[in-house]
Design goal:
By secondary structure, this protein is an alpha/beta fold. Helices cover 38% and strands 16% of the residues. The protein is built from eleven helices and 13 strands. It has helices spanning 15-26, 37-56, 71-80, 97-108, 126-130, 155-161, 183-186, 248-282, 310-321, 333-339, 357-374; strands at residues 2-3, 65-68, 87-92, 112-117, 137-143, 167-172, 190-194, 206-210, 289-291, 300-305, 323-324, 326-328, 346-350. It has a seven-stranded mixed sheet, sandwiched between helices. It has a four-stranded antiparallel sheet with strand order 9-10-13-12. Helix 1 runs antiparallel to helix 8, helix 2 (37-56) runs parallel beside helix 8 (248-282) and helix 3 runs parallel beside helix 4. The radius of gyration is 21 Å and the shape is globular. The two termini are 27 Å apart.
Length: 375
Amino acid sequence: MIYLDNAATGGQKPASVIGAVTAALRQCANPGRSGHRLSLACAERVLACRELLSDLFGGYGYERVVFTRSCTEALNIALLGILQRGDHVVTTCLEHNSVLRPLEALRRAGLIEYDVAPLENGRLEPRTVASLVRENTRLCAVTTASNVTGETPDLKAVRALLPERVLLVADGAQGGGHIPIDMKGTGIDALALAGHKGLFAMQGAAALLFSERMEPRPLLFGGTGSESHRLGMPDFYPDRLESGTLSYPAVCSLFEGAILVKAHRSESAGRLFELTAAFHALLPSLGKYRAYFSPNPCGIAAFAHETLPSEELAGILSERFDIAVRGGLHCAPLVHRALGTFPDGLVRASFSPDQSMREVNALALALKSISATCS
């Protein structure tokens, strides 16, 4: 199979990540729960991963790195754990349902209101985002990279136009690992990460990094291994937000993946830009296709055929050519409304840094063959 669905989940994990997970499964204990040697060794690796992520993303210290099961969970903590009755939120049409659905749930409960920044000339303009701020705006939620178009909004420009009191929450599901993200330098207050995409980790490995300006309430309650004499949750982070046993294999995979990203991010981003640029250049010659992306460092290439529905085209690529892509709305309905591709959606091919022109050419040949049979 030619796997071009890396924006959904990374299809091929590096050997070091696989080795770290295997080692963790062979011998591990519950980190932070017991005082014996193996438990302490696992706790040290967990701490090392917190420190590495904080360093890699310009964060606010290891204690403000919380491990979660998914980027969705991290975003829910950042939104549901901060927002209160009467708050207003600014977000954008590029956002994933991991942002939109928590906000909509709060709106339907009568707790908050939110506004969505539209695209202008096909792009998200920082001034448009800032123009929606009200007196009661509590936070602004903006993606680091669209999972449909690959666009990487200028978060530093957004932050510069926001009032200082407004918190900036960033969805790093697609941008994390692919593009440089400096939380302190940019002014990001919360960054949610999906380990299983650009960070090369396994599924179930994710994190939330947040600043001292944020004091999220816990959404999950239970054992933390600390202050067990109290029936209330600990007052300090990360324990306040980490109830239950951490997935030690997931943390180990995230640690090894982050090491690779730190060493090779620039090289990987350059390769993905080259691959998406090459495919973008080829697409007009393949038949009745239209591109909905520009060359980008996240490896995302979304397109549509003039007559074939996106999910049907994705099915043909899978069944006839053994090429894995994704069709549909990609859990991001508002960007498709903005692009005029709702409700059918788009086909999204997403490359990985270990791929080459071989995969680009294979996809191009398949699309040309499909277009020829449809004409």
